[in-house]
Structures are given as C-alpha cells and as structure tokens.
Amino acid sequence: MASPTLPRATRPAPWPLAALAGLAAGAVTLGTASLVAAAGAPSSDPFLALGAAFIDRTPAWLKDLAVATFGTADKIALQVGMLLVIAALAAAAGILARRRRAAGVALVVLLSTVAAAAAASRPGAGAPAVLPSLAGAAAGSAALWFLTDRLPGHGSRLTAADGATPADGATPDHTRRTFLALSSATLAVGLLAALGGQVAGTARRTVDAARRALRLPAPARPAPPLPDGVQVRGVGPFVTPNPDFYRIDTALTIPQVDPATWRVRVHGLVEQEVEMTYEDLLAEDLVEAWVTLTCVSNAVGGDLAGNALWLGLPVREVLARARPLPEADMVLSTSADGFTASTPLEVLTDSRDALLAVGMNGEPLPAQHGFPVRMVVPGLYGYVSATKWLVDLEVTRFADAVAYWTVRGWAERAPVKTASRIEVPRDGAVVRAGTVAVGGTAWAQRRGITRVEVRVDGGAWQDADLAAVPGVDTWRQWSFSWAATPGRHTLEVRASDPEGPQTGEASPPAPDGATGWHAIDVTVEG
Ligand SMILES: Nc1nc2c(c(=O)[nH]1)N[C@H]1C(S)=C(S)[C@@H](COP(=O)(O)O)O[C@H]1N2
Ligand SMILES: [Mo]
Predict the structure, then answer these.
(1) Does CATH number 2.60.40.650 belong to domain 419-525?
(2) Residue of 342, 358, 374, 383 with the most ligand 1 atoms within 8 Å of its CB, for mutation
(3) Looking at the CA of 297, which ligand is closest?
(4) Partner of 374 for a Cys bridge, out of 13, 135, 278, 388, CB 3.0 to 4.6 A?
(5) Contact 509 CB / ligand 1 (< 6 Å)
(6) Whole-number Å distance between alpha carbons of 25 and 95
(7) Which DSSP string corresponds to 71-97?
(8) 371 lines ligand 1 (CB under 6 A)
(9) Ranges of each domain in the chain
(10) How far apart are CA 219 and CA 328, in angstroms?
(11) Mind listing the pLDDT tens digit for each residue in 434-493?
(12) Ligand 1 within 6 A of 339 CB?
C-alpha cells in the first residue's frame, strides 16, 4: 500500500484501478453514442459503423478465414473482437490518465474521432452521423476526468485534504472502496445505456428496413391529376414534401410498428368484428386523395398545416364489413402508443375520403407520420381524426368514451374552421412602392374556398385571385396585386366558403380552433 507520507504527486494509483476508470469511461462513451444514435439516425451508431467499415476493408483471405473459423457467427465474432479491442484501448486510456489526465482524455477523443469518421463515411450518411460519436466523446472524457480525479493515490479528491492523515477518515481502504463503487457504477450505467441503445436501434433499423423494402400497390382509384395553376409564386409548395410536413404528436420517441405483425381490430358496437393485417390492407382496392391536414393548435397565420396525396382504404369500407349497431355514434381510434381520437361515425361513413392511409406523396408513410397505417379524415382537425400508428378502431358512443385531448379540455368534436393566411410579403417586410405581389393560402376542407379578399389599412375588402385546386379537401392558394404607396401599412386577409366569410372575431386555438383574420405590417419605401 502506498505510504501516506510520500508526496502525492509522485504516488501513482495502482494501474488496475486506473484501467477500471478507463473501462468505465469507455462504456460511457459507447453507451452515450449508442443512445444518441438510436434516438436520431440508428444507422449512424459508431460501433456498427466501425464494424461495417472494418468489413468493407477486410482482405478476402481474412474474410474467408473468419467464415471458415466462425461460420455464420462471423459477425458476432467480429463484434466480440471489436469489444475486446475497444476495452483494451479504454483501459489504456485509463492507465495513461493516471499520470496525465489530458493524455487519457486525448486518447478517448482520438478513438471517438475514428468512430465518427467511420460513421460519416458510410453510404448515405450525412454530417449528422458524427453526432453520436461526438456526444460519446464528450460524455466519456467527462467520465474519465471525473474518475481519474478520484483515483486513490495521487491528487485524489477522495484523499483527505492536504496535510490530513488517514486517521481523519480518508483511509486508503476507504478511498479505494469509494472509487471501486463509483467506477463500477459508471461502468454498469455505460453498459446498460449501450445495451438499451442497441435494442432500441435494432427495432428502428428493422422497421425502417421493412419500410424501405415496401412497394405500395397502384391505387384502384387514382386521384385526379393536379390541375395547372395550383401554385402561386412565393407561396409555400402546394404539395408539402414529406420531410417538411409539420409533425404533431405526444410520442417522446417515434413508435416502431412492424408491418409484418401489424393488425387493426374493428370492434365494439358492431355486428361483426373485423381484423386486418397490413398485407390484407394492401390487397384491397386502395384510393388516392388530396387532403390538407391541419392542427387545431394552429394560430391564425400559423404553419401547422400540410397538404399531401394520401393512399389508403376508405374507412367506410371497413366499417361496412363490421356493421355498426344503430346506437353507435363515434369511432375511437387508438395508436400503438395509446393516443386516442374520437371521430363521429357519420363522418367516417359518408362519401368523403376518410382513409386508413398507408401512403403519403407516393411513398409508404414516413415513421413520424404514422407508419405503417394512420387515419386521414378530410374536414376534421388532426386530434379528432388523424391517428398515427393506428392499431384499434372501437365503434362506440360519445357518451361512453372520451379521447386523449378531450380529457384535457379540448372539444369533443372539431371540424376544421375556414382559415386564411398571408405568406408574401412576410410580416415586418420592407418592400418598394409600386405593384407588390401579395399571396398566401386558405383552407376550408370539405366545403372549399370560394373567395379570398384582402384589405389595406382597414379599407374596403378587395377580391384576390384564386389559384386552381383538385377538390374541396385541400388548401387553396391566392394572389393579390397591391398598388403599394410609401409608408407603413397593415394588410389583412379573409376567406369565404359557400357559407360566407370567415369570422373576424379573434379567438385562441383552445378548445376547438382559432378564429380571426390574419394581419401583417409592411413598410413601403418610396
Ligand atoms: N398516435 C398519434 N396520432 C396523432 C397524434 C398523436 O399525438 N399521436 N396527434 C394528432 C394531431 S394533434 C395532429 S394535428 C396530427 C398531425 O399529423 P402529422 O404529425 O402527420 O402532421 O396527428 C394526429 N395523430
Ligand atoms: Mo393537432
């Protein structure tokens, strides 16, 4: 045992303890990287990327030797081998750090950089692929710094303050025990994180691979082609690209629902329970529909709305097979993660294209938009209709079941309110005097936009030009030529559906959707 009378700086900690600190830091590095990868892009997991990079660079003779030796377990053997090498390097970083902490940390950072490079060089990997390794490096370095600081022996924080003797309570045995407890706990947490990250990442990769391998059938009833002139210059795209489509849900992590085991059950107040698999669904006559989805939380002028071409089976077809009982008036849809929405039965059985949707803009639903199956119901806000990761349809009554957001104070029923917004110019913009192109979007799903008007500084309402639309269930763009004169001006917009203009009375999104006219301020320079 080291003598307490030696100057501490010359008394290195026993190397096995330092190696343990290194191992714990290594586990924290791997664990953090693995969790970050699982949460973001699971294919960027640095451990797997390193393995893949290694496989790609393995000479043929070594590959043959590996297969000859380990057979189909060659991948496992590679991973075990990698773990051993990483463990040895981590232990080395710990031993280095016992004399020079910076050197140990530098080794952790160096190894993480190699992993980051491997992740970034995988096919299809973008710059964000380095994030898991960077996060791992940061957490691992911190762990190594912290544990090395507490090594029994030189400069340890667990040794009593300068000049103190073991009699003060900080005996070498005490510091050793504390250090062992700290570093084993760190090691265990790191390993658990790594395991958790691998499990979560594997689920994500499996579902993602299944999604990528899918080919959706052609629709039995295609949507009409988009007419010319749906797009107004300067206004957002008429068809929202999937990556730009707004996302609203209560899911902390995106539910991973495997299409191979997916089922929807239709039950409750029905004569006949119905169950369908994903395969069953794809074998049906699917229809396509242009539908604009809007969120009840959208503020006047807000952007919680998106328009897409959806592919799916009309919900009414499924309900027709289940034969709802006369007393039923609602369908409670439930997602894989327990979200629920209450949709009036009559809305799901009338002629509108309420869909069990599998496709969005020509591809399988993206994971964050409800893969493999979601509901899309024209004319209703998302929270009462658009259940993602759908797994269950219960035919019931509003009197007997209450949905997720209704419990939390939002309205039981929520048809979309007619709305309009100005997108160009932007609020607060500075423009030149003369003719200024004003444009934006309006929606009144199911009813259709019949008119859009603009007024300047509270003057008379003037008609805007309406762009083309494929039907009543999408938003409609509009444009207006404004003869702008120098000064500060306020522009307002209001849209009409066949029932008249939208109300100018301002109300907040809760409990059933915002109302009011969107207004912007513009400065016109002479
Ligand atoms: N499973 C599940 N589905 C859900 C939600 C949710 O929280 N969980 N939110 C709903 C709400 S409030 C809206 S506005 C739409 C948004 O769909 P999107 O994220 O595809 O745009 O999904 C609906 N479906
Ligand atoms: Mo929403």
Answers:
(1) yes
(2) 383
(3) 2
(4) 388
(5) no
(6) 12
(7) GGGHHHHHHHHHHHHHHHHHHHHHHHH
(8) no
(9) 8-201, 242-408, 419-525
(10) 31
(11) 999 999 999 999 999 999 999 999 999 999 999 999 999 999 999 999 999 999 999 999
(12) yes
